Request: fold
Amino acid sequence: MMSESRSSILDAIDSKTKLLALIALIAEGAFVASLVVMPPDQVLYGLIVCAIILIVCIIGIVIIDSKNVDKTLPNIKNFNIKNAIDFYNTIAKMYDERNSKKLLESHRRVIEEIENHLNEDRNYNILDLGGGTGKLITNHFFNKENITWTYVDKSTSMIKKFQEIMDEAPLRTEIIVEDIDNIHNRLKGKKFDVIIISWVLSSMPHNPDFSLLKNLLADNGILIITDNDQAHSSLNPYYDFIIEGESYALEIRPINPLELEEELTEIGYKRINSMCTKDDRGGPFSFQLTFK
Reply:
C-alpha cells in the first residue's frame, strides 16, 4: 500500500517535470535558432541568455519536485517489532480495511481447519492468541453456543474492536489482556481443544515457548499456526497503513515454516496438516501448520 502511494505520487511529479522540461527545450531551441540571424557582436550575449534560461529551468524543476513531495508524501512513522503493540493500537480502527483477497483466503483455511476438528456434538474450548479484532475468524463462530472462545491480546485498541464486533454474540467469550509469553501462567489447569496463533508470530520479537503452550492442549487438541511466509515477507518486509495522510509501518519478522515445524517437532508436537496460500505470481504468500 505504501509503495503504491509513493509510485502514484512520483508519477504525478514526473509528469509535471517532463512538461516543464519540454517547454524549456522548445524555448531554448527557438532562441538558439535565432542566433543564426543575430549580428556576430551579439552572439556572446545570446549564448549567455541561453545559459540563463537553462539554469532557471533546472531550478524550477527542482522547486516543483520538492514542493510536490513535501505536499503529497505522507509522514512515515516506523515501528520496530518490540513496539508492535503501539503499532496495533495506532492502526486498530483501520485494521480490517486492509484485508486483501489472499489474506481472507488464509483466514478461511484456518476456519475450515477449526470446523473440521469440531465434529462432535459437545462443548469446545478455543484459545485464540493474539486475536486482533476477531472479524475474520472469531466472528465466523458468532452463533456457536457450544464454544467458549478465550481471546488473548495485549492491544487495548484491538480488544475494543473485538468487543464491538462480538457484542451480543451467543458465542461465549472470555477476554484476557496478557502477553502471549506469559499466558500459560494465567491459564494454569485449563485445557483447550484448539489453540490458534494466526498472523501473530511475525509481529513478535521471538517465538513463544511452545512447550508451555503444549501443556494447554487437551487430549486430541490441535495447534493451528498461520502467518506470512518468509519468502513473501522478504520481498514485503513492512506491514503498513496510511491513516488520514499519515503512514505507519511495522517491520515484521520473517517466519520460516520449515524451521518452525522442526522446532515444534523437537518439543513433541506432530504435524497433521500443512497448507500454503499462493500470491498472484504463484509464489508463497502464507503458510498454515496444524499440530497435535
Notes: The radius of gyration is 28 Å. The chain has two domains: 2-73, 78-291. The chain is about 40% helix and 25% strand. The beta strands are 75-79, 124-129, 147-153, 172-177, 192-198, 217-228, 238-243, 246-251, 271-278, 284-291.
